[in-house]
From TrEMBL:
Belongs to the short-chain dehydrogenases/reductases (SDR) family. SUPFAM superfamilies: NAD(P)-binding Rossmann-fold domains. Keywords: Oxidoreductase. Signal peptide: none annotated. Pfam families: adh_short. This is NAD(P)-dependent dehydrogenase (Short-subunit alcohol dehydrogenase family). It comes from Catenuloplanes atrovinosus. One of its GO terms (molecular function) is oxidoreductase activity. It comes from the Bacteria.
Length: 262
């Protein structure tokens, strides 16, 4: 199946590892030209051959500076994938009712919501010129009461609304906006020795491996395992593809049945 992505210029944020790296590889496999953005590069990202641009999107001026750098040498942009997200929780946030104080909430919302708004705003003229596509990476935590960390879940819920609102406002210009919302995905966040899951396990007095094995089923994932980044990347490819022009304002759950709705 030809997704008609050959030669398309694609910008992927949060691209150095995990899901972002999987998305980069998927677009390259379809013949796209990929610009990969992250705070720091990795050997794995270097090996893909994607163009790397270093940027800190958590800074208020980071998104604009990054987009300016990406478009400076080549003004084309066909697809934007807003994958950057997550963030660090301080130790004292574990066990706190709100999962952090005002500073934590501000940082998490700025990174997971405002950075997406800022990147998309800066990239919009180029995307409008190409009648391109935006794919935002959400999370099933936006739909699950009790999901943690709470600031992250709240920011992703807000992102879903922003994505849907922009889809309505931009459709007439030919720019399609959609969201992919995974549940647990194999990544450093879960598997890394100092990632969120490892730190949560330490707070609970559990072995990291034990919690990691239990999380998918506890979270309602019917496969009983974390999803592979490649699975989520394939959904991103479809939503970015011009062969699916009627996919507008969608929020695809790739969550192994974790969200229990009809």
């Amino acid at each position: 199946m030809d997704l008609e992505l050959t030669g398309k210029r694609v910008l992927v944020t949060g691209a150095s590892k995990g899901l972002g790296l999987g998305i980069v590889r998927a677009f390259l496999g379809e013949g796209a030209e990929v610009v990969a953005v992250a705070r720091r590069g990795t050997a794995e990202l270097d090996a893909t051959g994607a163009t790397f641009v270093a940027a800190d999107l958590a800074r208020a001026d980071g998104p604009r500076r990054m987009v300016d750098a990406v478009l400076a040498g080549d003004g084309r942009l066909d697809v934007l994938v807003n994958n950057a997200g997550g963030g660090e929780l301080p130790d004292d946030a574990f066990g706190d009712t709100f999962d952090g104080d005002d500073d934590v909430w501000s940082e998490v919302v700025a990174f997971n919501l405002l950075s997406v708004v800022r990147v998309t705003r800066a990239a919009l003229p180029a995307l409008t010129a190409s009648r391109g596509a935006v794919v935002n990476i959400g999370s099933n935590s936006a739909r699950v009461p009790g999901a943690a960390p709470l600031p992250y879940a709240a920011a992703k819920a807000a992102l879903a609304m922003v994505s849907r609102g922009l889809a309505e406002r931009l459709a007439a210009s030919g720019v399609r906006v959609n969201t992919v919302s995974p549940a647990g995905v194999r990544s450093y966040t879960h598997e890394g020795p100092d990632g969120y899951t490892a730190r949560l396990a330490a707070h609970l007095g559990m072995d990291h491996a034990t919690l990691l094995e239990a999380l998918p089923r506890q979270g309602g994932m019917l496969t009983g395992r974390l999803a592979e980044p490649d699975e989520i990347a394939r959904a991103v490819l479809l939503l970015a593809s011009p062969t699916l022009p009627s996919a507008i304002g969608q929020n695809w759950s790739i969550d192994a049945g974790a969200v229990k709705t009809t």
